[in-house]
Write a structure and sequence with these properties.
Chain lengths: 307, 241, 307, 241
């Protein structure tokens, strides 16, 4: 039996497959379909200090092999999350990671401090939501990233995963996050994209620009994870277009410790548990006892180079 | 709220064009939707990425049927399916129509009649008002299960010439369930509100997960943001307009 | 009859559809299939001062709705181009744009100076080839961009189109190009992407990273053109995933003066002439006399807002 | 070099599985390829983006046929085609085999026999050496047009047990045309070089344009980079090895 688990900071995930923030709610919705305890963990929808109503419809637009979204951080706010959602999330039988978004470093600090509760296994700092009007993305900027991570590091003992956008000075920002005390790097959030409606000549979203996810972006995110895993020593958690176990193996070969499935859940609602099964089979068939030998092997001349 | 949902592959038994651009698709299997609930449907690979939502039109021993109109990519791909091909279905989803209290009217425009047929079957003695842009379809099926059935169409085929809101009057009804173009629903709400008739409408929004997880299908109602796939697709009209 | 033409600097294109560099050779290959004089213009494969053999195979890898390439600037070199290819290109009956790539500003200068010949309608400075090992991309950097453009501006009177990569400080670099005397902005080249072969655990390309093109990237390039057309007053030429006339209209609504078809030629070899026909029909059906009323309308609240 | 190329839609007449995973597909239309030339083929939308190259296996009054093996996405999609479905074809492409001077041997491994059949038909009296991993196919068709035909297969079905390079000897031939796995070609070249026989091989590389424009299919030869789709797919072995 291979050991499919992975360690990320103080947390041991039973397998490297996580549900990505914003695509899996708080886990309960998908628990109506399958036993979500099979997953390595679940990352919550982004939580903000106060409730947010999000952007007006439409919020979704399809592109070739991709999905643009403009949700705009709709969420019930921290209080309601703590009172109603977190207790249920803890019952799901897998790691609970809470994704948070703040207006400024202090808000991030307050969020992580109030989330320093038993049953919260890690906190993912969302420095990369493309769907809030008028805000530059913190994660594009090394100094801004360092500020937020440093405030949060002081505010909690919890593992801090820092989620980056795919553009901007991400490599430098990831290094800054590492120095400021981050536990892991999560890469990447959606890509800034646009669609225009021919009838009206207007952008389809009220905010014009939305976030692109799905298979279309896989080669881009894979490249980013490949680069990130060379510039930081922290574990990297990959996401972006992963829909098959083969995709997940590519990310691990590029250097990822774990992967997140987002749009894959929409393409096949059983995508994530299928990945769990496929990855285990892969280890068995290749005669690998764990992920060690292949993680990052693309940097080392491939599988045999690792042996 | 926490009923089980299944993901199943089902075999297409029939996919018949009723009038140009409108199809009735039957698939084999054991399904159990409430009137007004829907399924997410797909029959393609990665592109387009999303499933498409369709109301359960009818259920039988043999399986389920959907009534759909060709709109874009997804529905064009569905229209190509032939008997023996397979379909992936996620559901049943959504809240469905409430249990009616008192005399019920069903008002549908075009393929908006889709979520009303199961309602007519389940809630006996409901009257049906069906509007069509062109030639009417499935009217006989409604006659078999509904109370009285009125038909309106643009060129008067099958009954009244004009729109369904011209033949419907709220008088005598306690409650009305409607599905169709937004303007039709707004017009109905005006009529029902004046007459003191409860109106429920089935809304449409693009969907990704269908399960309530992604918040892609949110509409803003008087009680705040609501998910069409979870709190809906059926909403009291006073929440929406 | 609508006027489908567009003016870019001193050049009037009969319609806004160009064949993109590197996907159309020097035009003659596609002339075996259809009358390429129907196109607005043809951009040549990148020409370098000396011949280059390019990268080893494989050079192509498919991704969902996308194509990774690692051609590596294979080309016969300036001399052979001038002797053999340019005379034939001139015979094709449409605008001839020569795409050039240099090792440093001086090489760019020499290339454009020696290309200052009758029959060369414009020169496209490729500051964005992702497939040359060990080079940062000039177009990601405003200063480096300004240097190359300034040298070229002194070296020729020809129209200079500057072709940017889709990442890096492109908006600032485009402004720098404008100040340094560029005639038009061409955006964008391919996106840096990666694929890994599962069997070996190695990147599929010898250079690891390749360039992603095709429908997958359309929403990203459309966004970039939308942003660029707000920060420069020069005409913007859009490319990236355009395969239908609807795609092309979106780019024009986002602010593009013209569009380039690259991977679309591979998906449908008649893609470009179909675009020409579709665009003309669009003008007719919407009752538009020219592109003026809809160009950039997405910035102005849509079509009616423009009226 | 500058012959015309056409892009045509053709109707599938037959798509028959000869042995597991290997198909012969016939399409209707008026085609005119030279032996060793190929077509780019597709029967799908945007994904996968590229056409797939296949040698013209045979030409007749009725149309064209292709012999192909399932490898990945594209060939799996082709295998699903049924009579009446349509196919998009770009071609004819590539140089094709040269006119042979002197006694000719044809050597093919697996679906590598695809570009050899038209050669056998065109260049009369050529001998054919056909190797198969499993059960042989289309051997009778070769016998009808070739001189002598030898067969090798892994388990000895149809003739020799082993590989095609074990039954072929260059003695007596002036020239040899071959297509198949790279190792087979390399082995043949060793034999032909020693024996002073001219060897031409048909190479495979991923292709985007098929026309010579994209330089995606370049291989490095002794005379520099060459495009498989334009200078090839047929190259003199001494250029390649
Ligand atoms: C709960 C629910 C039940 C539905 N039941 C039925 C039904 O029984 N029969 C039926 O014919 N249709 C029904 N619809 C609408 C149906 O889902 C859309 O027509 C379909 O998704 C369009 O897919 P497409 O790929 O063909 O169109 P696309 O190519 O995606 O888009 C074409 C056009 O349709 C519009 N559109 C796309 N998706 C939706 C959507 N989800 N809702 C409304 N408009 C959309 C777009 O704005 C666009 O103008 C229902 C929708 C919902 C939300
Ligand atoms: C000029 C030419 C003529 C050919 N004639 C025939 C023929 O008559 N019959 C036949 O069965 N095949 C032929 N091939 C090979 C055929 O094109 C590939 O098998 C096919 O493109 C694979 O497509 P796929 O989508 O199924 O595989 P993919 O999913 O793209 O890849 C699956 C596997 O096939 C390999 N592969 C992919 N593309 C090619 C390629 N172009 N050449 C070689 N290997 C490739 C990949 O490395 C991968 O391991 C020919 C190739 C060329 C270049
Ligand atoms: C509908 C939707 C909502 C999302 N919401 C969030 C969010 O709240 N917080 C966050 O960090 N990322 C969010 N994301 C980004 C995803 O978590 C993921 O990083 C991204 O979609 C790329 O992965 P994918 O291609 O597998 O979807 C969202 C993505 C989608 C599609
Ligand atoms: C095979 C290939 C070769 C290319 N070569 C060049 C080149 O030599 N010079 C250049 O500026 N761009 C080159 N490009 C980029 C294209 O011109 C185009 O900008 C890009 O592919 C995006 O457009 P598309 O999605 O329509 O292909 C190349 C692209 C491809 C796919
Ligand atoms: S479609 Fe995902 S919440 Fe409704
Ligand atoms: S496939 Fe484009 S040059 Fe050969």
């Amino acid at each position: 039996m291979p050991d499919t688990s992975v360690r990320i900071g103080s947390l041991v995930l039973k397998n490297p497959v996580l549900a990505a923030s914003g695509t899996f709610g708080f886990g309960g919705d998908y628990a109506r379909l399958y036993d979500v305890s099979r997953l390595g963990g679940i990352v919550s929808k982004a939580i903000t200090l106060r409730p947010r109503a999000g952007n007006p419809p439409p919020r979704l637009w399809e592109t070739p092999c991709g999905l643009l979204n403009s949700i705009g951080l709709e969420n019930p706010g921290l209080e309601a999350f703590l009172a109603e959602e977190l207790p249920r999330m803890r019952e799901l039988g897998t790691a609970v990671i809470v994704n948070v978004w703040g207006e400024d470093p202090e808000e991030y600090g307050e969020l992580v401090s109030r989330l320093s509760l038993p049953g919260v296994d890690a906190i993912e700092l969302n420095l990369s939501c493309p769907n809030v009007r008028g805000k530059g993305l913190v994660g594009e900027n090394p100094e801004a990233t360092a500020r937020v991570v440093a405030v949060c590091r002081r505010a909690t003992d919890k593992d801090l995963w820092v989620k980056f956008p795919p553009q901007g000075e991400v490599l430098q920002a990831a290094r800054a996050a590492q120095q400021a005390g981050a536990t892991a790097i999560s890469a990447a959030n959606t890509y800034r994209g646009l669609a225009i409606e021919l009838e009206t000549g207007r952008p389809v979203f009220a905010n014009a620009i939305g976030g692109l996810s799905g298979p279309a972006i896989k080669p881009l995110s894979l490249r980013l994870v490949y680069e990130l895993s060379q510039v930081v020593s922290l574990p990297v958690i990959g996401s972006g277009g992963i829909v098959s176990w083969q995709d997940a193996v590519e990310f691990i070969m590029a250097g990822a410790h774990a992967v997140q499935v987002g749009t894959g859940n929409f393409i096949d609602p059983l995508c994530a548990p299928k990945l769990v099964r496929g990855l285990r089979k892969f280890l068995v068939q290749r005669g690998l006892g764990s992920w060690e030998l292949i993680r990052g092997c693309a940097h080392r001349g491939g599988i045999s180079g690792a042996a | 709220m926490d009923r089980q949902v299944s993901l199943v592959r089902a075999e297409v038994v029939e996919n018949r064009e009723l009038v140009p651009g409108v199809f009735l698709l039957r698939a084999r299997g054991n399904f159990s939707a409430q009137p007004g609930q829907f399924y997410l449907v797909r029959a393609w690979g990665l592109d387009p990425p999303l499933f498409r939502p369709f109301s359960a039109f009818d259920l039988s021993q043999e399986g389920i049927s959907f009534l759909y109109a060709i709109r874009g990519r997804g529905t064009s791909l569905l229209a190509r399916l032939q008997p023996g091909h397979s379909l992936t279905l996620l559901g049943p989803l959504g809240n469905g129509w409430p249990q009616p209290e008192g005399k019920l009217a069903l008002v549908g425009g075009g393929v908006g009649i889709a979520p009303l047929y199961l309602a007519a079957k389940a809630f006996r003695e409901a009257d049906a008002y069906l509007g069509f842009p062109g030639r009417p379809y499935l009217v006989e099926k409604f006659r078999e299960v509904a109370g009285r059935v009125w038909v309106a169409s643009e060129r008067g085929q099958g009954g009244h010439r004009g729109s369904v809101t011209e033949i419907f009057t709220p008088d005598g009804y306690r409650v009305c369930y409607a599905c169709g173009p937004r303007e039709m629903l707004a017009r109905l709400w005006e009529m029902c509100r004046r007459a003191g008739v409860w109106l429920y409408v089935s809304l449409e929004e693009r969907m990704a997960c269908g399960l309530g997880a992604c918040l892609g299908c949110t509409v803003f109602t008087r009680s705040g943001p609501q998910r069409v796939c979870r709190e809906g697709p059926v909403f009291p009209a006073q929440e929406v307009f």
